[in-house]
Amino acid sequence: MPIINSSKTDPNKILPMTYSWARQHYKDALANTWVPEEIAMQDDIEQWKSGTVLSERERRLVMWNLGFFSTAESLTANNLVLAVYNHITNPECRQYLLRQAFEEAVHTDTFIYCCDSLGLDPESLYGMYETIPSIREKDQFVIELTKSVFDPNFTTEGEDNVRRFLHDLVGFYVIMEGIFFYAGFAMMLALRRQKKMVGVGEQFEYIMRDESLHLAFGCDLINTIRAENPGVWTPSFQDELVDLITRSVELEKVYARDACPDGIVGINAEQFCNYVEHIADRRLERINLPKQYGTANPFPWMSQATDLAKEKNFFETRVTEYQTGSLEWE
Predict the structure, then answer these.
(1) CA triplet 250, 61, 51: central angle to 5 degrees?
(2) 184 touches 302 (CB < 8 A)
(3) DSSP readout, 244-306?
(4) Among 46, 85, 245, 310, which is most buried by a count of CB atoms within 10 Å?
(5) Would the CA dihedral through 45, 48, 51, 55 be positive or negative?
(6) Would residue 314 count as lying in a domain?
(7) Which helix (H) or strand (E) holds 238?
(8) Cα distance between residue 298 and residue 313, in whole Å
(9) What is the rounded CA–CA span in Å between residue 39 and residue 41?
């Protein structure tokens, strides 16, 4: 039975399952269970308050990323719960979406935890999506991209509407979660590699692990809808999606230069921009669209976390009993 527009699908009846990939993503997500309070923040608090450990540009980098992610995660959760879930009636996909919604709540809680731990002004932090142009433009871009699914009269019936739905799914999964988050991930993990703000960096690492699964599910969802509705995948529609993705790359590059204008030790802003181009090519290939950049990965150390293999080590360490929420390391 098709993943959307199936009158035969009972969303309350999960067996027998049609899409084994959705079930596998759900199981992988369960194995990634974590909560922010299990990550020690004392060293981060001391570094943040010392006034000497972090340079002004490093403090700016931390604030910009906390400011963007704190509201972006809420925007993501709203898209998921209020729009996407309504239009996917397949039960095993809905089960994963419920799990993803839980993870978005954990991510939102992470920024509350960081804000409280570091003694940040919440009005300033949570208001950055209005006061920082490069953050506001990214958020507005996604809001515009996902208008269709928020229309109370929208349905996925007919090729035009399926195409609109795919357009919004690309905006939500490929652009928001697959591109707009990744310069920030690279910045915070680069800082962590320098033994600065290690607790915050560890939380960003876990968030990236979750987001890698969200992206994988979203791409499988897009590809399945496309395969079941081949008439919607016209050359002009493919060109439209490529254009959206390349425009999002430019917005993310503006943000990268804004958040980290002078670079940090050993890394400059242009390397973050190159990284965005590199991951954009990967996203394009994942949904069967042509690469646009051919840019090499300037941060090979990011692949370990981004590629998301449960058994793979994170920076020469291995999570033990991760499926029970433990954050102990061997």
Answers:
(1) 165
(2) no
(3) HHHHHHHHHHHHHHHHSTT-BTTB-HHHHHHHHHHHHHHHHHHTT---S-----S-GGGHHHH
(4) 245
(5) positive
(6) yes
(7) helix 235-259
(8) 20
(9) 6
Residue 283, domain member (yes or no):
yes
Q: 241: which residues sit within 8 A by CB, 6+ positions away?
A: 167, 170, 287, 289
Q: For residue range 275-291, what is the model confidence (pLDDT) as tens digits?
A: 999 999 999 999 999 99
Query: What's residue 146's pLDDT?
Result: 80
Of 248, 194, 249, the closest CA to residue 58 belongs to: 194
- Rounded to an integer, what distance in angstroms lies between the CA atom of residue 262 and that of residue 281? 26
Give the whole-angstrom CA distance, residue 69 versus residue 63: 10
Other residues' Cβ atoms within 10 Å of the Cβ of residue 154: 17
Here the CATH number for the domain that contains residue 288 is 1.10.620.20
Q: What is the CA radius of gyration of the chain?
A: 20
Crossing angle of helices 91-118 and 56-79, rounded to 10°? 150
In a domain, 208, yes or no: yes
| Full domain range(s) for residue 64 | 20-324
What is the CB neighbour count within 10 angstroms for residue 161? 17
Q: Return the SS3 of 121.
A: coil
The model's pLDDT over 18-43, given as tens digits with 9 standing for 90+, comes to 999 999 999 999 998 999 999 999 99
What mean pLDDT do residues 270-276 have?
95
DSSP string, 65-76: HHHHHHHHHHHH
Q: Which of the residues 19, 26, 85, 113 is marked catalytic?
A: 113
Residue 113 annotated among the catalytic residues of the structure:
yes
Looking at the domain assignment, is residue 1 inside a domain?
Answer: no
Measured CA to CA, the distance from residue 207 to residue 34 in angstroms comes to 10
C-beta of residue 36 within 8 angstroms of C-beta of residue 70: no
Specify the number of domains making up the chain. Answer: 1
Residue 6's φ and ψ, nearest 5 degrees, are: -110, 115
